[in-house]
Write a structure and sequence with these properties.
By secondary structure, the protein is of the alpha/beta class. It has 10 helices and 10 strands. The strands form 2 sheets. The chain has a 6-stranded mixed β-sheet with strand order 6-7-8-3-9-10, sandwiched between helices. A 4-stranded antiparallel β-sheet has the order 2-1-4-5, covered by helices on one side. It is globular and about 50 Å long. The termini are far apart. The relative contact order is 0.18. The model has no long low-confidence stretch (mean pLDDT 89).
Length: 258
C-alpha cells in the first residue's frame, strides 16, 4: 500500500492562478521521492497542499490527496492537526516559518515533543539533545537556550529538521532541506535522512532544485516545470535515461569535479 497518493491534483489561488495542475504520483511505504525543478515550478505548493497549509486564497480545486488511503481533503481542521507532526511532518524551506522568533528554541522544541509524545520533560530534553548532536549541532544546551535570531540560517534549518525527526513521523515532507547548508553539512543531513528511513521506515517527499542531492537520496524522482509534472520515474530511469529535454538540461547543470 502506498503511504501517499496524489490523484490529478490541481491547486488554485484566488484570481484563477494555478501553480500546480493535474499532479499525480505515488509514494510507496518507506520510499524517498524527490521533486525537482526550478524556482516557481510548483514544487513547494504540492507539499503545502498535502499538509493543508496553503497560503490564504489557495485551495485544492481538483483531485484527491490520500494518506494511507484516507482522503485528507475530507478531514476537519481538528483531524488534520492530529495528523500533522506525528503522522506527517514538514520542514519548511525558510526556518522562520517554523520557529517563533519571540521564544527560545528549547521552549518550542520541548512543547512540540510534549504535544505528540507522552514523555517526561527530562526524557524530552535528552531526545532533543541527541537529535541536535546527530545533525552536527553538538552544543545542544546553548542551542536550546538561544532565540532563533541568534542562530544562522543553516543552524535553524537543522533545528527544524531535528524537531521533525524527533517525532518519528510516518511521512516527512522536506522543502529544500539542504539549501542553506554548506557542502559538508549537506552531506551530513543527507546521511541523517537516509539513516532515519533505515531506522524508522519513514517515507519522504523532498523538494529540491539540486539534482545531485536527488540522485543520492531518492528512489523515485519527479520533475516539475511550470506547475506540471514533466517527468516521473525511478532514480535510474530519470538519471540514466531521461525522456524530457528539460530533465536532460537539469542533469547537465549538475556540477562535477574535474
Amino acid at each position: 500500500m502506498d503511504i501517499l497518493e496524489l490523484e490529478n491534483v490541481t491547486v488554485t489561488y484566488s484570481g484563477g492562478k494555478a501553480p500546480a495542475e493535474h499532479i499525480s504520483f505515488r509514494v510507496p511505504q518507506k520510499s524517498i521521492v524527490a521533486i525537482v525543478g526550478e524556482s516557481g515550478s510548483g514544487k513547494s505548493t504540492v507539499l503545502r497542499a498535502v499538509m493543508g497549509l496553503l497560503p490564504s486564497g489557495g485551495k485544492v480545486a481538483e483531485g484527491r490527496i490520500l494518506f494511507e488511503g484516507q482522503d485528507l481533503g475530507k478531514l476537519s481542521q481538528k483531524e488534520m492537526r492530529q495528523i500533522r507532526g506525528k503522522e506527517i511532518a514538514m520542514i519548511f524551506q525558510n526556518p522562520g516559518d517554523y520557529l517563533n522568533p519571540r521564544r527560545k528554541v528549547g521552549s518550542q522544541y520541548l512543547e512540540t515533543l510534549g504535544c505528540h509524545l507522552s514523555l517526561p520533560k527530562q526524557e524530552r530534553v535528552k531526545l532533543a539533545l541527541k537529535m541536535l548532536a546527530a545533525l552536527k549541532l553538538p552544543d545542544g544546551e546553548r542551542i536550546m537556550n538561544s532565540y532563533p535570531f541568534q542562530l544562522s540560517g543553516g543552524m535553524k534549518q537543522r533545528v527544524a529538521l531535528a524537531m521533525a525527526l524527533s517525532l518519528s513521523p510516518k511521512l516527512l515532507l522536506a522543502d529544500e532541506p539542504t539549501s542553506a547548508l554548506d557542502v559538508t553539512i549537506q552531506a551530513q543531513v543527507v546521511y541523517e535522512l537516509l539513516k532515519t528511513r533505515q531506522r524508522l521506515g519513514t517515507a519522504m517527499v523532498i523538494v529540491t532544485h539540486n539534482m545531485g542531492a536527488a540522485s543520492r537520496l531518492a528512489d523515485y524522482i519527479g520533475v516539475m516545470r511550470a506547475g506540471k509534472l514533466e517527468e516521473w520515474g525511478t532514480r535510474d530511469q530519470i538519471i540514466k535515461a531521461p525522456r524530457s529535454e528539460y530533465t536532460k538540461g537539469l542533469l547537465t547543470a549538475v556540477p562535477t569535479l574535474k
